[in-house]
Amino acid sequence: MWKHSSYLDIPCCPIGFRVPNPLVTPLVLVGLLLALAAWIAVALWRSPYTPVQSVLYFINVLLTRVLWRTQVLGRWTLPPDQGAVIVCNHSSSVDPFFIQLATGRPVHWMVAAEYFRIPLVGTVFRYLGTIPTRRAGVDTAATRTAIHLATEQRLVGMLPEGRINDTPAILLPARPGALLVALKARVPIIPCYISGAPYDGTVWGCFFTPAKVQLNLGQPIELTAYAEHAPTPELQARLTLCVMRQIAQLAGHQDFQPTLAGRKWSPRQ
């Protein structure tokens, strides 16, 4: 039952009812915000990514999971303190996005140096630890950087085909650079195959094109048996063909016979 004030004629609170402290709600909100900030700080501290990389990889998850509806087949089994070289087919300019989704660790991709001259793109690549390299020929400096990173238990991503495959062929002729890095760093090489990646012939069109992508993860290929062998061109060529066959098998083509790119290979071929 309500009591009325005879002076102000304003309803009073029922007997036994306590008016909430107006400071309680702000204090609760502040406490929740502090708890959220602490959780984010701990997550960033434990994360293998830098704060900027964490933001970029969050965007990567949104793109790959929502826009491109990526399905990952196979398990990522590499220990977190193990370096490796990841190789995959090249069907789109955003192929590294799908590999990154599966690893949970930064991947240092070798990317054509001219992209670093694009203001925003170059800045993003530098934050991601991308390795600039020349398209044609052998870039000794980039190769040394990749070997150093793999030796330091990092992941290095390479695209043996060297350019986007817009032909009906399963795989283009491959270059042996990835095997050279893996042999020199004494780390395994991990084959992957991507299907359904968006590509309209341009670099930026992929970001506006819905797709349904499937990523097939292969098992690490150990190269310890060749640790005491010199990485001769013949050995690199033989192992490159073996790895490219593994990539084709992930695509369901068991009898595919890969080929090597010639000495005078260029991205226009």
What does this structure look like?
With 269 residues, this protein is an alpha/beta fold. The protein has a single domain (49-250), classed as Glycerol-3-phosphate (1)-acyltransferase, CATH 3.40.1130. Helices cover 36% and strands 12% of the residues. It is built from seven helices and seven strands. It has helices at residues 24-46, 51-67, 95-103, 119-128, 140-151, 177-185, 233-250; strands at residues 71-73, 84-88, 107-112, 131-133, 155-158, 189-195, 214-217. It has a seven-stranded mixed β-sheet with strand order 1-7-6-2-5-3-4, sandwiched between helices. α2 crosses α3 (95-103). The longest helix has 23 residues, at 24-46. It is globular and about 80 Å long.
The total beta strand count reads 7
Please give the CATH class.
Alpha Beta
The stretches of 5 or more residues where confidence is low (pLDDT under 50) are 1-8
CATH fold node name: Glycerol-3-phosphate (1)-acyltransferase
The largest beta-sheet arranges its strands as 1-7-6-2-5-3-4
Give the count of structural domains: 1
Mean pLDDT: 86
SSE succession: HHEEHEHEHEHEEH
Please work out how many helical segments DSSP would assign.
Answer: 7
**Which percent range describes the beta-strand content?**
5-15%
CATH architecture: 3-Layer(aba) Sandwich
Biggest beta sheet summary: 7 strands, mixed
